[in-house]
Amino acid sequence: xxxxxxxxxxxxxxxxxxxxxxxxxxxxxxxxxxxxxxxxxxxxxxxxxxxxxxxxxxxxxxxxxxxxxxxxxxxxxxxxxxxxxxxxxxxxxxxxxxxxxxxxxxxxxxxxxxxxxxxxxxxxxxxxxxxxxxxxxxxxxxxxxxxxxxxxxxxxxxxxxxxxxxxxxxxxxxxxxxxxxxxxxxxxxxxxxxxxxxxxxxxxxxxxxxxxxxxxxxxxxxxxxxxxxxxxxxxxxxxxxxxxxxxxxxxx
Length: 252
Prior knowledge:
Number of domains: 1
Largest sheet: 9 strands, mixed
InterPro entries: ImuA, P-loop_NTPase
CATH class: Alpha Beta
Shape: globular
Number of helices: 7
Number of strands: 13
Strand order of the largest sheet: 6-4-7-8-3-9-10-11-12
CATH architecture: 3-Layer(aba) Sandwich
CATH topology: Rossmann fold
Helix content: 25-40%
Protein name: Protein ImuA
Radius of gyration: 18 Å
């Protein structure tokens, strides 16, 4: 179906608005705590922007989900987590004890399970326009057709207008044209056991594959310090722990 002249005019206005906000808004940055990653980001992750998180492989889904949850915890404020129902059926439900283990308070979480990509994106746009929200995390199944460049531009504009950070979590998906400020790819690492062989801090291999304001960076091996709520360099060298490193999903 061809777009009407009115639809094209509205799209041009959205794009012009996005470019104007990018030019006029001074970004506020949240340091991640990992020195090399923060240096590559120019001081930290930009707040009030759209960011993408990709799982390197299907087996890295839990780590990518964990990384997105850690970013949300670091950014602060309430979290609106919007999931397509297919994600829960295929990957399992979110596990509140797993969120607690990384230091995220489930009381800050508003979870929405929605039937299809269009509904998820519509809800995400509304949530991202609400200044009272800290972070909107959008989780879609694979490569839905509604998630195109125009959809990401709308999310980016909503984020920049309200100051709400939007995280787009992609599992079993490939990168495509997007208005996201940054794009991250996450792989699992074995954590280093603590004393008495207690489970160690969640460990990740993270690569900044794209950013609009600078070059890519990494990959960096990092771990999450839940007590301080920051990422830090992974010191490695420990024996691999059996089982999933980041138990954020139940029954999946």
